[in-house]
Amino acid sequence: MADARHSGIGMTSARTRERLVQRLMEQGIKDPRVLDRVRNVPRHLFMDEALASRAYEDTALPIGFGQTISQPFVVARMTEALHGSTATVLHNVLEIGTGCGYQTAVLSALVSRVSTVERMQPLLERAKVILKELGVKNVRFRHADGSLGWKAHAPYDGILVAAAAHAVPQALLEQLSPNGGRLVLPVGPDGAQELFRITRRDEHFVREKLGGVSFVPLVGGIG
Question: Does 30 fall in a domain?
């Protein structure tokens, strides 16, 4: 029964997923590891059943609590940017904004360990259940203010932030590995957000703009 639920039928079938992957390739996603993971993660499990038929559209969708499941292109773009041009596996990655757990699931097969932080307890608990159902075992979870990072497991080879900050949180820069750690995050107010990749080399930080995006804001505190 679980296999059937994971594989989906109709608008959640393998054929529908393959069409999504083709669209992502047409939009410039090149990393075969990322494309394969998008193809194989059952996105329809991470949203309400009423929206499952839209799971493989390339669009963000509501998941409750004023949050959204990110557009598949954005998930793929951020994941690809985090890896950069390297073919090696990143060992220690921090995700800020677990949300429904979809981005976590995509990352989990591409890195050795994901530490994920979510400020909304109900979202975090729901993500835990879905990721456990999918057999994901290399993720540790924390209910906390994501803008502060998770210092106990730093330094990180990569940090991915799934919410838009008005300015880059200093705590996240400090928790990057000084040997090429990469931070991928959206920065800016609604309507003027830009995706950045920031690479740390010792105490130097190189910033690259990767294009316009639209995310919910990064909010401090916990809910």
Answer: no
